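step: validate -> pass
step: tokenize input -> pass
step: predict -> running
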Amino acid sequence: MIGLDVATLQWSLVAGGLFGAGIALIVAWLVPNRPQLAAFLDELSAPTQPGGESRRERPSDWLDRLGRRLMRLVPQLTLPIADLDLLRVPPQIYLARRFVSGALGFGLVTMVTAVLVALGYRPPILIPVAVSLGLGLVASLLPGLSVKQRAAARRDEFSFAFGAYVDLVATEHHSGSGTRQAMEVAATGGDSWMFERLAEELRRSRLTGQSPWDALERLGDRIGLADLADFAAVMRLSGEEGGAIYETLRARAATMRQTRLAKEVAEANQTGERISAVTALLAIVFLFLVGAPAVLRFLAL
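step: predict -> pass
step: emit ->
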């Protein structure tokens, strides 16, 4: 009985120490610190809505502080910058979410182990440690998977709507508008996130004196949209050399629509094949259920 009490006390001390150390580290990281000049300038340069709030995802202060601390601790960590920029998620928020998710996964097993020890169960120490580390690692990967899936969906939406934008630019340019004016007017032709992002970049290029095609080319390279960079190259031909681009833009928009249609057809065919496979499997199971009693009765004779 004395040995049991000592072992229980040891497990309680280990679990409590780990939990307390984690809380202490989190509190230390969340203590407000002197803001960095680069972070302050990034906040000032963030695009704003008409109401004055940033269009970027508005994180809570503690996530922002935690993420900045982590970025200073691990400066060489590779982040999906293109996906984060496309989703308008600050890198420090993404990093903080991964850390918090991993800490919750690790802490969940620690708390369960503490409860089991308090109830008198004593699992081998390697089991909860391994499970805690494994669950924490898996949980820390979940925000990354979410960002990847959301970014892929955004790029799919972009390819769906960008053909309409190219058509609008071609129509505006053909009606006599200048290259910049055609691009800016066409960007007001929709209310989706893609049109808003394009209009935002074009407004910024006007304020900074940058050519609109250079701004869109850099945006396409930054967020991984090849169609946007190709479109910027065509608009540069018109803006710098005065080339006729109406037919080129219409042909490019038609190509985008055909590519999108081919992709939709391929996905529909894959869905039909999966449905056929499931239907065939259900038919086999049904025949087995119907024929099994007769086969068993014949074998019993």
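step: describe -> Residues 171 and 246 are 8 Å apart (CA to CA).
step: cleanup -> pass
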